[in-house]
Amino acid sequence: MLQALKTLRWAQPVRALSSVATSSGTQANLASATPAPQPDKLYSKLEIELRGIDPAVLKSYTWFATTAADHLGIEKGKCWSPRKAHHERMTLLKSVHIYKKHRVQYEVRTHFRYMNFHKLTGSTLDTFLEYIERNLPEGVALQASRTELQQIPEHLRQPPEQV
Known about the structure:
Blueprint: H1 2-11, E1 19-21, E2 27-29, H2 30-33, E3 42-52, H3 55-72, E4 75-80, E5 86-93, E6 103-121, H4 122-134, E7 140-149, H5 154-157
Antiparallel strand pairs: 1-2, 3-6, 3-7, 4-6, 5-6
């Protein structure tokens, strides 16, 4: 039975996506319908924040990300981490109903690591972020913020006229 399902799945015809039938019955080519390519965006800075419970893993991942940036020709900025970890403590009762004096304390330590990268194009930034996100180790969270460069609006370019 399983073999029959596998053969049915692979026996279905594959449709070409290069052309689309319009309502009048003529065919239009998808290549002509695509818009002209937009210029690549420029980013002045990419800030990456890493969070994890093991500082050695964060340090190793920072080395990995900076090495990947070197291979892509991305300018590295400052990489740093605060000295102390963020402590979150939870106090719970050992017993459900009585013995309020008997408590248990749990603590979670979160370590942070920050990385900055400068002067990126949009395609390089997307490639870099996808690569480092796919290789993110377990127990590590990544938050990235981008600073995009934009042209000055036309109404601000010309100086005001003298009165």
